[in-house]
Amino acid sequence: MNTSSKQKQHRYFIISLFILALLLLLIVIKEFIIPILMAMLLAGLFHPYYQKFLVLTKGKQSLSSALVILMFLLVIVIPSFFMVAEIIHQASYVSGKIFPFIETQFLATGKTHNSLPKWLPFKEELVPYTEEIFSKLSNLIESITSIIISSLSSLTQGTLVFFFNFFVTLYAMHYFLTDGKSLLEKVPNYLPITHQEFRKITTQAVSISKATLKGAFLIGIIQGSLVGVAFAVIGIPGAVFWGAVSALFSLIPSVGTAIVYVPVAIYLLITHQITAGVGLLIWGFGIVSSVDNVLRPYFVGKDTQIPDILVLISTLGGIGLFGITGIIVGPVIVGLFMTIAKIYKASN
Fold first, then answer.
1. pLDDT tier at 68 (50, 70, 90 boundaries)?
2. Is the distance from CB of 178 to CB of 65 less than 8 angstroms?
3. How many CA atoms within 13 Å lie on the side-chain side of 126?
4. Ramachandran sector of residue 2 (left: φ over 0; alpha: ψ -120 to 50; beta: rest)
5. Which residues of 174-193 are buried (b: 16+ CB within 10 A; e: fewer)?
6. Which of 23, 178, 206, 209 has a CA positioned 20 to 30 A from the CA of residue 42?
């Protein structure tokens, strides 16, 4: 056997060992891949604050990292737990109390031909199907409520798995804040890509994460809050819950929060609450729906160039695969794919 053949066999053997070791590693850490990935993204997002704390603490890395994690807990995590608990409470109330009330009011309105407003399109055709239409809508809303309750309940049930994964996320976040830079400098040495290409990939991941958080969370929170305030003023029960639902639907381009407030406005108009119905429509189309067009360019800027349809699909697919963290993970995966595709095209 000549030297060239031995070198090829040696190379193939090493590659096989590497792939086998990688597969075994993934099997071992498969339950912690999402917590570690979230820790990486959070470390990248909070790194500017870590740098500022380094200046204040005169270069003490562990203390600076601890301050960043404390800020993360106080500003984001703890308020989120209280908000989630309130959303679940109101969702249970809406599901158990409000739907029967609306059903009674709506069906009472629909039983009499003359009780429907004259302006209602296809009034003659809709009257016989009023009960069936409401039944379908009620079932749909109840299904959405059930999904939201089951998805959020895991955050407040205090399960051992949840808190263990959360601890792993915080610990990994601390590690990536203090040693992430040196780790990133070493990674390209073990990959068949240049340092510049690897830096481009990591930069894109952080940029997309920031854009997703700003676009999905901040704009969603603002739009959801505006809808919740309007519902509270009008007197719609469960305003916090409906605000949360509106924030979730704000992920859908163009339509977004209108899915929530338009049916409510139509119900108000049908039940002859004209001032409240018209006011809600004006507030919704004039203020709530315009927030996305006005604030998204300011918040997101040019951090990401992912088309809206891909953002929607990747977000929904990410939620289905990874749970609530998929709101971030889904678009990041799509963004990384687009970046790697550009690098591949440039290399050919």
1. very high
2. yes
3. 17
4. beta
5. bbbbbebeeebeeebeeeee
6. 23
SS3 category, 256 = coil
Cα(311)–Cα(335) distance, integer angstroms: 9
Residue extents of the structural domains in the chain: 194-348
Q: Is the pLDDT of residue 338 over 60?
A: yes
Task: Read off the tokens for 307.
Answer: 């088309």
At residue 334, the pLDDT reads 79
Query: What is the sign, positive or negative, of the torsion defined by CA atoms of 100, 101, 102, 108?
Result: positive
Contact 249/259 with Cβ under 8 angstroms?
Answer: yes
Q: What is this structure's pTM?
A: 0.67
CA–CA distance, 48 with 52 (Å, rounded to integer): 7
Is the pLDDT score of 153 beyond 50?
yes
